[in-house]
Structures are given as structure tokens and as C-alpha cells.
Write a structure and sequence with these properties.
The protein has helices at residues 4-16, 43-63, 88-96, 183-188, 191-208, 214-222, 225-236, 240-245, 250-257, 277-284, and strands at residues 22-30, 33-37, 65-68, 78-83, 116-123, 126-133, 146-149, 152-155, 169-172, 175-178, 211-212, 262-263, 269-270, 288-290, 297-299. The strands form four sheets. Strands 2-1-5-6-9-10-4-3 form an eight-stranded mixed beta sheet, sandwiched between helices. Strands 11-13-12 form a three-stranded mixed beta sheet, covered by helices on one side. A two-stranded antiparallel ribbon has the order 7-8. The longest helix has 21 residues, at 43-63. Helices cover 36% and strands 22% of the residues. It folds into two domains: 4-189, no CATH class; 192-304, no CATH class. The protein has 305 residues and is α+β, with helices and mostly antiparallel strands. It is built from ten helices and 15 strands.
Length: 305
Amino acid sequence: MNTSELQGFIGKLLSESPENCLKLYFSRWSSSRYFSYLPQLSSNLQKDIMQMVLNPLTAKLHKNITVQYNPIGVADGEIENLNASSIPHIANFKESIQDDMVYKAMHELEISKIDFYCFEISYDGQAIFLFRQFQKLKKLRKGIFAQIVEDELKSMDGNFLGIDETIDIVVFNDEVYLLNHISLERIFKYKDEFLQKTNEAIVELLDQNVIANIEQFTEDCRRDIRIMKRFTNIMTKGRLPLFFDNYEKVSGIVEELGLDIDFDEDDRLIYRERSQLFYIVSLLSDAYFKTLIADRTGLAKIETG
């Protein structure tokens, strides 16, 4: 897992500085689909944008290490990677920028409703997509925006678009690189995937019949994004079979750690309230461990992130 091919393509773009290879899309999510808008850009502005965003991006790719995506969180100095096929809404976005779908009349664009913008840079048979969450420029409390036009200072009215050097997500050759962990949820609505993985886990728990009051447990899990992220991590790493195969050890772990969990006459975990979610999900993910020297039991750090 590395970014050498990605860095090589970006290096080619910077060194060869091709013309008219960049498109900029402003996109919003509404009614379960993306609406994307394509403004015209001069050749000089395209080059300015490429220099502005690609140089800092190269520095980040070179400085940070690439790790597998973890729904729970990411450490400083890490860039997360996952395959584009695991993010359904990438295909939905690409559909929105097809020539017969994209909006080219800029008067139809409502700046206040933009969710993100995307640079598409195509060159030498390859394409890279750079996504950035959008924030509308705040209006001045007092004062004016102005520019000099033919030696005259003129006020500028209306809404303004801000584009900076920061990139949140890179898509290249069917690989996705996250420079901003939370942007996956905000740009590509990845919470839907968290819910799907949670539902898959619930089905397996139902089949194994290891939790009493599973209906309330299910409802509370679906209301807590942190728990859904942990279920996504559990299902991605295939942790549940380990839990089921070693279920006879669970009561002993609960007793040793003094967890607020009881068992019914069928040896099922009894779920009562939301305060128990963290402990139960930690058991499901095999997050508890015992040290060899001090014989202490603890919780794996990655599971608490």
C-alpha cells in the first residue's frame, strides 16, 4: 500500500504543465443524488489552480504514511486508503458530471447549497479527482469587498466562492486516499455504509442468539454513529466469527473486568441501556487484552479512538 504511482502522476502534471486539462465541479446532494455544475475556466486559471493544490498535496503524500481505512479514526501523520468500489456514491458523483447530466448554466448554481467542489485533471490517458468540502466565504460585518478595475476601486456585490490549496479526498486509479477522515462521511454520505455494516452484524447476532433484548440493542446501535463505525470496523475485519467461536470465555471476561453486563438463563448477554453499548461492542470486536508480565487486562487503543 503506497502512493508512488499517484505521486508519479502528480509529478508529471507539475513538470509538464499541460494546458486545458482541468475541470472544476461544484456539487450538492439533494433528493438522493448529486447535482454538479461546471463553470468555464481560462487556461491560466487552470494552471494556477494546479500549482496551488498539487504542490501541497505532493508534500503531504511524501510526508505521511498510507494505512488502511479505519472507520473509528486515524492517527496523525497517516493517510487512509480504500478501494473506490467500497464507496457507492463515487459512481453517483461521476454520473452527475457526465456531459448530459452536468449543469453548465452558472445562474442555476446556488452558492449557499454547495456541499463540495472537485477538480478533475485528465492527462496522458489518466485522471485524478481532488475533492474539497465547501465553505461559503463569510460576509464582512462592516466594510466592503473591492477590486481595482482600470485604475478605479469598485465594490463587489454578491456571493463569493473560495477555493484554497487544501484537498480532503483523492481518487486515482480506483483507489481513494483520505487526507481528512470525516470528509468521507460528508462528501460521499458514508454513514449509509456504516448503517449497512451495522445491519449485517445485527443479522449475525440474531442468528447466533447471544444478546437478549436484541430489538432495543439494534435501535440504540442505529442511533449512535460511533457504534456504527465500530461495527463497520468489526465487519470489515471479520471479527464476529472469533467472538462466536469463543463465546464460552465471554462471561469470565465480563466478571474479571467488572463490566455492567448480566446473563440470562440461556447464557445470553442481557442488554438494558445505551451505557452498555461500548462494553458489548468491545467484546464483539475482541478489543480486550491481557498483558504477559503484569497480567493486566486492558482495551486496545485503536478501539478507543
